[in-house]
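Holo model, magnesium ion. Inputs:
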Amino acid sequence: MSQTVTHTSGKVLVVEDLTVSFDGFKAVDSLSLSVDRNELRVIIGPNGAGKTTLLDMICGKTKPTSGRVMFNDMDITRLTEHQIVRAGVGRKFQTPSVYEDLTVLENLEISLPRTHGVFQSLTFRRTPEVMDRIHAMAEKIYLIEAIHSRAGQLSHGQKQWLEIGMLLMQESSLLLLDEPVAGMSPREREQTGDLLSLIAAGKSVIVIEHDMDFVKRIAHKVTVLHQGKLLSEGSASEVQQDPRVIDVYLGH
Ligand code: ADP
Ligand code: MG
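Output:
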């Protein structure tokens, strides 16, 4: 990985003029945005606006047609998904993917960064430090009482929390979360809002979300996408009052 010198210091993420075209259809179209350290950014926009595709390009799942993605002043546009994870970008997809047959504890354990050689994944070292970290994480994600339950037995909301915990074990400095409160109860949404706010105290988080009450509660700043383009950006109340945003939401 080569370091590229730029003038983006202080920003954890800078997306520059990003475009991806699928058979001539621009799902994301000349999009530029930047995210600060310890910022919790929410991305909203009607279905098909390009939100998920944007996250796909940041995490390397989809390669842009043009433009670039800078992460901590490093150009990650052409890196593989694995390299981007190792650089410190964690991604959670819309449906939770946890190991159903493993316990909460084991799911968190296997998410620890594997930097100690090829046998790491077979020889977990349950040192007191490792166990303390896992228990602290289970507590943080509201699963301490379920720590020995199999993930398959958890509710949908609890699985979402477990997956967030698994991402946090990897110590990413940027988390990308695609609709993390979908299917959650109001109480679970509230707890997730608290969790995300806590997480953003130490890292940057980008959340795609529809529920405007939830957005207002957690967002430092909101970016509105429409037809692959940036429609509006500002505080939750600013974008809600933006006539262009009102137009797009009422028009659909
Ligand atoms: P959102 O997450 O905002 O609802 P998406 O990013 O999933 O929107 O999709 C944006 C648009 O791009 C949609 O019209 C979708 O059909 C299209 N799209 C996304 N991925 C592909 C792909 N791999 N091939 C073709 N079209 C795609
Ligand atoms: Mg989507």
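The domain at 11-250 is CATH 3.40.50.300 (Rossmann fold). Residues 156-169 form the longest helix (14 residues).
Archived with the compound record.
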